[in-house]
Amino acid sequence: MDALFSSLPPLEKGHVWLVGAGPGDPGLLTLHAANALRQADVIVHDALVNGECLSLARPGAVLEFAGKRGGKPSPKQRDISLRLVELARAGQRVLRLKGGDPFVFGRGGEEALTLVEHGIPFRIVPGITAGIGGLAYAGIPATHREVNHAVTFLTGHDSSGSVPDRIDWEAIGRGSPVIVMYMAMKHIGRIAANLIAAGRRPDEPVAFVCNAATAEQRVLETTLSRAEADAAAAGLEPPAIVVVGEVVRLRPSLDWLGRLTEGRRLEADPLGARGLKDPA
């Protein structure tokens, strides 16, 4: 293993690596991410980074929390970006560790632009985004040939915490068979109403995947019209990925994690008898 890591690039002093930690399971870290954890002097990490991933840091590494959680006191994004500059200029080997992928609703682009502005060398290390990996751990594929040839990823709130007003809900409702939403739980009632108004069926399958790919993972299957009420009744809390579409119906067949942890019996392909085809 040491020989493998020795062939990977070094994290040099005065450099910043913007790294995706994946959705939770430390086994989903890339080799570049693990290599960075072995080398970094300072790790500036998000709230969504699993503690098991942080435990892989080299002895003596400083962990700095820079989590941003809705409705709670959080550092300003500009302050986080400038902190990376400050640490790099002090000659530290800096790892900016972000849940999921830094360039998928992770503000990695903003931080990288600040590094460019201040002349700080950096590297981008992609991670498995929760909209792909989190769904896979719930037994829900983002795409399935008999269901969809397109998928839309969107965020459920903007920088002000409101439902993004620049999203064309009507176009997405008409054109995307599967919709995967980040940070959407707070406004799921309004979002569901927007999609139903755009023509989606009230009984269309919906799933919430909370704390994806961790020991605390919870999955709730419901429908578009009942999503808000059922999530509240179940006491679900963020972080969560919300997926809308017929792919949710595949979960009884593909919930491999439930089979491993709960001994759940997997069913035969639930779509086989339905003859579902991509409407496009």
Structure write-up:
- Helix content is 30%, strand content 18%.
- The strands form 2 sheets. Strands 3-2-4-1-5 form a 5-stranded parallel sheet, with helices on both faces. The protein has a 5-stranded mixed sheet with strand order 6-7-10-8-9, with helices on both faces.
- It has helices spanning 2-6, 31-39, 51-54, 77-89, 108-117, 130-137, 169-175, 188-197, 227-233, 251-254, 256-262, and strands at 16-20, 42-45, 62-65, 94-98, 122-125, 151-155, 178-182, 205-210, 218-223, 240-244.
- Helix 3 links the parallel strand 2 and strand 3.
- By secondary structure, the protein is of the alpha/beta class.
- Mean pLDDT is 93; it is low at 275-280.
- It contains 11 helices and 10 strands.
- Pathway: Porphyrin-containing compound metabolism; siroheme biosynthesis; precorrin-2 from uroporphyrinogen III: step 1/1.
- This is uroporphyrinogen-III C-methyltransferase.
- Keywords: Methyltransferase, Porphyrin biosynthesis, S-adenosyl-L-methionine, Transferase.
- It holds the Pfam family TP_methylase.
- InterPro entries: 4pyrrol_Mease (IPR000878), 4pyrrol_Methylase_sf (IPR035996), 4pyrrole_Mease_sub1 (IPR014777), 4pyrrole_Mease_sub2 (IPR014776), CobA/CysG_C (IPR006366), Siro_Cobalamin_biosynth (IPR050161), Uropor_MeTrfase_CS (IPR003043).
